[in-house]
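G., before I forget:
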Amino acid sequence: MRAALRIAALMCLPFAAQAQVQGVMLDDAVSLPDFSFHDEQGGRFTSADLKGNWTIVMIGFLTCPDVCPFTLGNLEAAVAETGLRVRPDNVPKVWFLSVDPDRDGDYVSEYGPFFHPDFRSMTGARDQIDTFIEATDSFYRLMPADADGEYEVQHSSAVSVIAPDGTLRAKLQPPFDPGMTAEFLARLQIGYRRELSQ
Amino acid sequence: MIRAIAVAVVLFCATSATAQDISISEAYIPLAPPGVRAHAAYLTLSNTGSENRSLIGVTAQGYGMAHLHQSMEMNGVAAMSALHQLEIAAGQTVALTPGGLHIMLMQPAPSQVVGASVPLTLHFANGKDITTQATVTQRDGGS
């Protein structure tokens, strides 16, 4: 799959190194297998829920002190900016998938809405998580615990962008400059609609 | 000598904490998401002296543990590593900012409110401690 990736780094301000989006649009849409995630409130999030709207899925863990909150905060700004450029029903939904169900399973639902009321956070059985991780060419690893029983989780920093037909269309790498990310997502959606109309 | 005193006075007025040649500013803690067992504090350290200084530990009031950490990304994988010491060379300023160097706060106090102050005590290799107040801030999107 990596061979099929087309790098589309949009550098709009040549002299501002920060102002770029590291986005990869996939040449060929990737079908996703069936999966089912959940939260502790009885919420269920399945592959069927991806249909009919754009979805951005970020993976991480709740004991992540720095990068995960920072990334979700940036995503919130980027999605808000996207909302200024696309139709309301094309604003991506955001899912945060915890790959650390043992520690996070009891309170995972509160995490996403902390960053935006519409964000959702969830976890799942290990095989369901792994199914999604593999299909999106993502990665995570639970590191060995230290003397206090604490462990770190390494994970892909890129988020997956999934189209209303339920297929993976792009990966976005943080940091998510709001304007550049919105531009990237708007272009992605234009390409998607063009493809549908052909 | 007079200049040194003047600099010291200016620093004392301009920053939240000073001790000898290290000043600390912009100490803040973004409001933690609900329930999490770890979050982060950020601050800026300036070494105005002529000798290098080494930050070797942090104590945060109300937390079970506080560690110096560095987030990094290698080949698209986000990872974190503990720092046993952080060098602040003479004349240098080191900023702990989201996505990079941070103080990981663990086993937090039950609840926090925006605007609250959390005393952070920084331990240096020369035996000196500096305590500063970190302000709990609303988490803004977009950095």
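Residues 1-19 of chain A have pLDDT under 50 and may be disordered. The interface with chain B takes residues 60, 62-67, 69-70, 73-78, 80, 103, 107, 110-111, 114-116, 139, 148, 150, 152, 154-158, 173-175, 178 of chain A (CB under 8 Å).

More on Monday.
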